[in-house]
Amino acid sequence: GIRVEIHGELPDSSKSALILANHISWLDIFALNSAFTARFVAKSEVSAWPIIGRLCRGTGTLFINRDNKRDTARINEAIKTALIQGDHIAVFPEGTSTDGQHIRPFRSSLLQPAMECRALLQPACIQYLDDHGKRTNAAAYCDDISLGESVWKLLGHEGLVIRVHYLPPIHASQSMNRRDAAQAIEASIRTLHGSIDRILVAP
Predict the structure, then answer these.
(1) Global pTM?
(2) d(Cα 141, Cα 17) in Å, to the nearest integer?
(3) How far is CA 182 from CA 18, 43, 157, 165, in A?
(4) What is the pLDDT of residue 197?
(5) Please, which residues have CB within 8 angstroms of residue 79's CB and are 6 or more apart in sequence?
C-alpha cells in the first residue's frame, strides 16, 4: 500500500554519480532504487537485519562501521572504485535518520571520492506523506524505535506516499572542495524541504 512519487529529472544513467539525500527511514533505500538503481552506503547493523539486510547486500550496499572513524577511509576507497567503474552510489550525509520534519547539517567526509573522480553530485529530497498529502512520521526510523516496531507501525498506516524529488545536479570540479559541495547540496535540499508542501502533485 505504499506509493512512490518521483519528481524532477532522474540522473544520467550513463555517468557515474553520487546521490545525496536526506534520511528518514530504512524505506528510503527502496524508494530511491524504485526509480534509479544505485549502491548505498549504510550502517553496518543493517547487514544483519532479517530480510532487509539480505536485500541490501544483494544490491551491493557498502556497509560502514560508524563507531570506527577509520572505517570512513575504507568506505571512501570503495566508493571511489565504484565511481571509476561507472556505478551510482547513494549516501545519506546527515549521518543518521530523522523524523522528516527538519534537515540536519550534512557531513562532507563521504563526498571526497566524488570530488577526486569529478563525478556528478545528485541531490534528492525525500518526504513521507499521508493520504491527505500532509507530512507524516509513520515511516520515521529514529530515536529508540526498533525495526519490529517500525514495521508494525507501517503495517497499520494506510495510504503512505513517498515523494522523491531530484534536484539539479552539481558537477564536481577542481575549484570546489567537499565542504562547499556538501553545504550547497544541503541548502538546495533544505530549501525544497521547506516549500515542498506547496508543490502540486501531478495526477
Answers:
(1) 0.84
(2) 26
(3) 12, 20, 34, 18
(4) 55
(5) 18, 41, 62, 89, 110, 113, 114
The torsion angles phi and psi of 125, rounded to 5 degrees, stand at: -105, 125
C-alpha cell at 61: 550496499
- Give the pLDDT band of residue 198 (cuts 50, 70, 90): low
Mean pLDDT for the chain overall = 85
Cα angle for residues 17, 46, 134 (degrees, 5° grid): 70
Tell me, what's the pLDDT at 167? 95
Residue tagged 501531478 (cell numbers): 202
Which secondary-structure segment (H or E) carries 185? helix 178-195
CA 193 – CA 126 distance, rounded (Å)? 8
CA 77 to chain centre: 19
Q: What would the grid cell of residue 150 be?
A: 517500525
Q: Residue 88: exposed, middle, or buried by beta-carbon count in 10 A (0-12, 13-18, 19+)?
A: buried
Nearest to 27 by CA among 124, 161, 190, 123: 161
